[in-house]
Design a protein that fits this description.
The complex is a heterodimer of chains A (about 280) and B (about 350). Helices cover about 15% and strands about 30% of the residues of chain A. Chain A has about 280 residues and is α/β, with parallel strands linked by helices. Chain A has two domains: about 90 residues, Translation factors (Elongation Factor Tu (Ef-tu), domain 3), CATH 2.40.30.10; about 160 residues, Rossmann fold, CATH 3.40.50.80. The longest helix of chain A has 13 residues. Chain B is α/β, with parallel strands linked by helices and about 350 residues long. Chain B has two domains: about 190 residues, no CATH class; about 140 residues, no CATH class. The chains are: A alpha/beta (about 280), B alpha/beta (about 350). At the A-B interface, strand 4, strand 6 and strand 13 of A face strand 4, helix 5, strand 10, strand 11 and helix 11 of B.
């Protein structure tokens, strides 16, 4: 058989260069293709990671494409594949297909004020965008990073992001359930939005988080005057093939794995069940 | 289009010539059901006598040949993934699917678009490139509404199409591949213009004799469906539906699949295979965190019906994904009939339009 070059279900081998346990359930991996080719992704795209005998899972990339020698993912243990990936160590081999999807609209965000909102694990795909913006800082205006998590312990990449804060980059976070040492904000993520002091009509927003968060964050942003087509969100669906074939991620005429996962709110507003 | 003509008996006896050189699939009687008559199936044919020339529809559509219910995508050994080409270097024979009804040919043309138009699926392509479709005429049964979906008579999409006129077959030659088959069968005589005209008259009369069953044209369907969200019919069928996915299995244009690994006993080697999946199954749209984007049968029914009558229209260049074969209605244990559902939505739509 001569598989068409454009598509392949056969994973490529990659080597795990480094790992870090972030929390009990979230582990960070730095990976390089064994071919030493650059993955060449766009922030917001995902890959299918493969463990022989277990299967594949769609995983968001969390490193910026400006890092050409490797790519990074941060994986929460939730199913068979992710549990198996958690057992891998530096030097182990993993299968990979991709990158897939459209990614964040980095061009449209150029020279704009951007509010980046991440809920829970949503911060992981957003890191690819945030680091990309840092590496091309002159192409973007003011950046507001608003992150919410259940507990202080599940705030990922805190040290990294807090370092980025400066005159033009604001970092804010909030938790639902504070622990003893927590002195920061407590509450829901929408309460951070009024603290952003910019013209919402011209600003853009990129949101990644659990489905329930989208409704409330979008409502808040729209109430401040942000146009619907300025609000970008990345949707989670069961993306089995990544090629617009297997049907699991379809909503209306859209295949999340190919047409998304990033959509603007104007595209999704009338699609029932999208958010 | 070129047309050839041959005596039916001659054609049947020559058809044997193809059995040994091709992977030959035809329709055969699978089970006898005393109450409703026999059920038919596409099977490998070893004896021409086993072919059913007159059948209503097959249990499974011919998609099962090009997109098998279980298909090996690759073998794996430790961390190495080996594509099928390296496992089985010998080339298989070309495939003939014989006796396909027009609606199933349209359905295969739809699968061609879905699998091949973008990101061509190598597994489907490999089989499809080697496949020759030979169509025959059909009479719609009680479930079939192919006339309404404009799939009852077709002018393209096949390699050969057999029309019965008295003791002859007039054979429409739809492609070069079809022509080669007729050469192999030594079917040489061209149909005369009078014979082709007579055929067209007969086809017209056949079509006229079949009633329309849908209370709208198929062009109206996307609009009816897109305005149906709050229709109480969805609630009614939500109550009935078992979410068993039978409709997905028998649908000639359902092609969703799942991918699963099958480890050997050594746990080091195994096969990665794809399996037919169905959007009517409860777990189809569940993601890692447990969120189910179509939690109730209602959502899943809407997704499936809309996919058939609306969502894929753009992708299919204006065609709808439902070809009106009626298999889903026949197979549904809850007796949900897709045609009745479409008609009910149309009636309600008319009623609301009158009120407003």
């Amino acid at each position: 058989m001569q598989p068409a070059e454009s598509v392949n279900y056969i994973p490529e081998q990659a080597e795990i260069l480094d790992t870090k346990n972030f929390t009990e359930n979230e582990k960070f991996f730095r990976i390089r293709l064994k071919s030493e080719k650059c993955l060449g992704h766009i922030p917001g795209q995902f890959v299918e990671l493969s463990i022989p005998g277990i299967g594949e899972a769609p995983i968001s990339l969390c490193s910026s494409p400006t890092e050409k020698d490797f790519f990074e993912v941060c994986i929460r243990k939730t199913g068979n594949v992710t549990n198996a990936i958690h057992k891998l160590k530096t030097g182990d081999t993993i299968g990979i297909r991709g990158p897939f999807g459209n990614g964040f609209p980095v061009e449209r965000l150029t020279q704009k004020n951007i509010i980046i909102v991440g809920g829970g694990l949503g911060v992981v795909p957003l890191r690819s965008l945030i680091n990309y913006i840092s590496d091309n800082r002159l192409d973007y205006k003011n950046i507001y990073l608003l992150f919410g998590t259940k507990t202080p312990g599940s705030l990922l990449f805190y040290d990294e992001f807090v370092k980025k804060a400066d005159k033009h980059t604001t970092y804010m976070n909030i938790v639902d359930y504070p622990d003893k040492g927590w002195t920061g904000r407590v509450g829901v993520i929408t309460t951070l939005i009024p603290e952003v002091d910019i013209n919402f009509r011209e600003a853009y927003s990129v949101i990644v988080g659990p489905p329930i968060m989208y409704k409330f964050v979008i409502r808040e942003l729209v109430s401040y005057g942000m146009p619907k087509e300025h609000i970008f969100l990345s949707l989670e669906r069961r993306m089995k093939c990544g090629l617009g074939k297997c049907g699991h991620c379809q909503m209306h005429n859209l295949f999340t794995c190919q047409d998304g996962p990033v959509f603007d709110y104007a595209q999704l507003e009338n699609i029932k069940g999208a958010i | 289009m070129k047309y050839k003509i041959i005596k039916i008996n001659d054609f049947k006896s020559r058809l044997r010539l193809l059995l040994s050189n091709y992977e030959f699939w035809g329709v055969t009687e699978k089970v006898k059901v005393p109450t409703t008559g026999p059920k038919f199936s596409f099977e490998r044919i070893n004896d021409i006598e086993n072919i059913s020339w007159d059948y209503d529809f097959t249990i499974l559509p011919p998609k099962k040949i090009l997109f098998p219910p279980v298909q090996t995508l690759m073998k794996y050994r430790e961390n190495e993934y080996i594509p099928p080409q390296k496992q089985y270097p010998e080339l298989d024979k070309n495939i003939i699917i014989f006796g396909v009804h027009s609606y199933d040919i349209v359905a295969l043309n739809i699968l061609d678009i879905c699998f091949l138009a973008e990101n061509a699926d190598p597994y489907y392509k490999q089989k499809r490139d080697k496949t020759i479709l030979i169509g025959i005429e059909h009479k719609p049964n009680e479930y079939n509404f192919s006339k309404d979906m404009q799939t009852h008579q077709i002018e393209k999409g096949f390699d050969l199409f057999l029309y019965k006129i008295n003791d002859d077959y007039i054979i429409a030659v739809g492609s070069e591949k079809g022509k080669i088959i007729l050469d192999e069968l030594e079917v040489k005589e061209e149909a005369s213009i009078d014979q082709v005209f007579a055929l067209n008259d007969k086809r017209y009369a056949d079509a006229e004799a079949i009633p329309y069953k849908m209370k709208m044209t198929n062009h109206e369907l996307p609009n009816i469906l897109s305005n149906s969200e709050n229709n109480k019919m969805w609630e009614e069928i939500n109550e009935k539906c078992f979410s068993c996915g039978s409709c997905n299995l028998v649908c000639p244009t359902c092609y969703c699949f799942d991918v699963r690994d099958n480890p050997d006993i050594d746990l080091k080697t195994g096969f990665r295979k794809r399996y037919w999946d169905g959007c009517m199954l409860r777990e189809f749209a569940i993601v890692a965190g447990g969120e189910n984007f179509r939690p109730n049968a209602r959502h899943r029914l809407m997704h499936r019906f809309f996919r058939k009558g609306w969502y894929l229209k753009e992708k299919l260049g204006g065609k709808l994904a439902c070809v009106g074969c009626g298999r889903c209605s026949q197979t549904c244990k809850a007796e949900i009939n897709i045609l009745d559902c479409f008609n009910k939505l149309k009636e309600e739509y008319n009623a609301t339009c009158r009120i407003s």
